[in-house]
Records
---
Amino acid sequence: MTSAPIIAHGLVRHFGSGDNTVRAVDGVDLQVNQGEIFGFLGPNGAGKSTTVRVLTTLLKPSAGSATVAGFDVATQADQVRRSIGVALQDAAIDPLMTGRELLDLQSVLYGIPKTRARERGEELLERVGLTAAADRRVGTYSGGMRRRLDLALSLVHEPSVLFLDEPTTGLDPMSRLTLWEEVRRLNREGTTVLLTTQYLEEADQLADRIAIIDHGKIVREGVPRDLKSAVGAPTLLIDVDSTHAESARSVLARFGDLRPTSEGTLGVGLAQGAEAVASVIRSLDEAGVHVRHLELNEPSLDDVFAEATGYRLEGAETKSDAPAAGARRGPR
């Protein structure tokens, strides 16, 4: 038996039947190694959360297989649940209970002795910075405080594998940074983390390896640095008047491969690098194209995502040639 704490082979999860079948997860192969932070990157509807729900036994796979902490998610669900911590973005937390009461209840559910449960609760409250708010009702907590409490609840039984489903969605920048540091600290202490996110910076900052998922399929996987290096040339982004867009596109195509961008901008991978910028601007000027704004960006995870999927993760909703919402959406 391999020591990898998360393994999936040909994992499929579909919803509906017949012509209305939606394959939210479509043949995912995945291996998360011991002691790493693995980032699962993709837009809403790509299949991230559905994959996590299968791996955490909240949904049964339609096909394929997966093991978590050495246990089969379909046939050994109880053992999986006792081995993992899970913090879902839509977790229901009773607003009438206090943070301390919820931690005590979680300890009871995991069969932790009362004395140890109280010690563990105090440790976790301090760890996530909620000691002062421990006896307040959760309904009075801010969004960041609730996320930190949810993280504490997932750690009560000291799991070896932790699933975090978009843990910083909706948080302010300071709360996001605080949660990032706690994830890093947990990982340094030996916890294996699978983190789903739609934030490029979050994946780049936290993950040892990432997988990009789109339409239920993994389209890229690897170390962020290596994925960005594979993209190659930097991207020149320009903003021009819509009446000159076609002329600008023709000019840019002479200097490299056109790249997907947000609506309202054009992009090209400059094969000759930054030194080609002056030539591009001169050629645009000769073609009668006025550039309102330009910027040169080194390869990023957004470039990796765009190369793999044909659209940008950031601003993909407004991209004119992006797939229709119904084609990309579906059960998460």
Note: The CA atoms of residues 53 and 59 lie 5 Å apart.
---
Amino acid sequence: MLVEHDISDVRVGMYIIEITVPKNKFRLAKQGWLENERIIDALKSKSVEKVLIDASKTRSVVPSAAPSVTTKLAPAAVTPDTTAKDASTNPFTAKNTLTNARTLTPAPRGQYQFNQEVVKAKQVFDESKAIQAKLFHNAQRGLPLEMDEVYKITSESTELIFNNPNALACVLNLRNKDEYLLEHSVSVSILMTMFAIYLKIDKDIINQLAVGAFLHDVGKIMVPDNILNKPGKLTDDEFYVMKSHARHSVNIMRKTPGISAISMEVAGQHHEKLNGKGYPLGLKGDKISLYGRMSSICDIFDALTANRCYKQGYPQVKCFGILRKLAENNELDIGLVDKFIKCMGIYPVGAVVQLGSNRLAIVESHNIADPIRPNVRPFYRLAPKAFEKGLDVDLSSAADEQIVKCVRADEFELDMQQIIEFLAQEA
């Protein structure tokens, strides 16, 4: 659990994520445990007021003997931002450092900033998965859902998306095919939040939508694994059992005090279709609420893009085509599908694209005025195959570069974790 602490409350053994106050004056290059009081004192001496701590990683630390005066000092704990008004031209050197931490660098910009934010977003994503696992555990045993953690993490995700939607959008691509059940619900909650923000829905309602999406598949824990993970087409009897998960989700949520009607709506209607051929109620047309229509789009998009133990996901651009086809068949709301595509961008943030220069690049941000030419970061050359350092490219102003197609990293025997780690090291 990520908690912001006043520097006066920080103790040895805590795991520090970043400096939050003052913002952008000092920046950790690498996270780590606070091994002794000297590190904390060094932070205090530079007027650091608040830091972000991962409370789940706090550990007991046996105090070590103070180093002798001849002990060789490790790299500096913090380095002032040389652009700050009061920054010194000489780096500040602490008497000790975080274990295994590198020199802390000036306030990040560009790619460095992007990767630091992705690291933070990944921590929120992983914490969400851990909470999701507890929900499934309780639901399977007929125990009440512990909602305090759900409200906290969905609120934290919402704030993160409000402040920087690109980071969590990128993390959606860092998936484990063996953890689909956990990751799917977390991802749909994130997509639902992004979509609702794009539609300018009231923030209080957005939080309720995020909770509903977070819980929308909790009923799947009642479906046997041989049906849930079957690689081939389900038989009619198997599909009947699979469809029961929507009712199970609603029933589990009804037994949990405090869950709003809007959250129930999201979970209960995410498999309904405009043509009335959905489930569990076979609702048709206007009987399906705006929030139910949104949830089915987000649910299908994530299911199409995600790798599973028995199938590979599709590139995002192909999934947009599938969503539009479903809308043309009167299963999804065509107007909302088009808005969802605009929300995600023709080339979503975090997507991998192949460039005309025979390189792979990751989409870093959109160009609102030119949506088919986003800002990208090349990272891999295809001939010969090798990672390479590259500069940010604004395709809207790069006359000699263009996107050939949207691809998946695994098409080139790469994975997104490997790519992000390379970009973070480069930064």
Note: The radius of gyration is 24 Å.
---
Amino acid sequence: MAGSFYFTSESVSEGHPDKLCDRVSDAILDSFLSEEESARVACETFATTNRLVVGGEVGVSDEIKLEKLMSSMEGIARMCVKDIGYAQDGFHWQKLIFDNLLHKQSVDIAQGVDRDGAGDQGIMFGYAVNENDKFMPAALHYSHAILKRLSEVRKNGSEPQLGPDSKSQLTLKYENGKPVSARSIVLSTQHLDEKLSSQDVRNIVEPYIREILPEEWIGQETEWHINPTGKFVIGGPDGDAGLTGRKIIVDTYGGAAPHGGGAFSGKDPTKVDRSAAYAARYLAKNVVAAGLAEKCCIQLSYAIGIDRPLSIFAETYGTGTVSRELIEKAISESMDLSPKGIIDHLRLRRPIYSRTAAYGHFGRDPESDGGFSWEKLDLIDEIKSNSR
């Protein structure tokens, strides 16, 4: 990775069918956590032409609360669709058919989680690299940023001809392990005017792309592919079905690091698929920020009902300033990595998840209400001290 090479990552917008489903699932999770901090939620959403289906397992302390929450599911889902911007003939926030198939959490699963064990088995990865001030792989970071900017100008009325559904992809050239230029820029975005050509769409979006990317990265050799197939009017679930949890690489590190396979959205923090992946990112970011490595990948593993990680592994790809063993020691001594310890340390029993559903779960700024708490850099001194 120290030589010259090309690396590509993609992002998808909040209006992508899969991301819309993630948003609905996380909004339902937030509604349960707003009602009861100890609520259990594993919510999946499916979307297709003018239909939205939610299903999965939920749990709260009494039937009255559950009945109240269940009656609010349809309104929550419709408001998510409205906020994203779908009022099309084939997918309209008011007209779509909504099916609620949520039911009580299995008592077999609950018995292990109720004693503070993990909600499932699995492996989770966290990653950080010093390619920018967000400690994120550059191709993914800028792919997210482009789509987020286009969403802003669509919603504030500056570019009303853009639609909610879009995808971006960047191929960056690396020299000596650092990104130096954009080899190709790919963007496909839904548009509401059928008469717009690919060149018309490029004329709209190019200024915003140039606003986001470092100026020196774009040159004569940069290839542009804007709406390369032509017209893109039919978008969202009317054009392609969506499902919660199908964009796990977009959600994490854009292919720059391993992935354990577990999705995030719609899962309460007792599910280590989510909470342990957040903890692993938190630790990897603090390791890199502490100067112990230029890049760091951390793996954690868990078993259902067990209240501790089964293994902790750190990889620094030859960039570490201390040994792997010392980094693993520092990790285990700097944070309680039991499921309860992670939840308490990062304060995850709060309705902070809807905002994670698009533009990545990582590389965001910590927020005053506790959102993105796993992005804080408050373990640097402790990790340094424990790595000696």
Note: The mean pLDDT is 95.
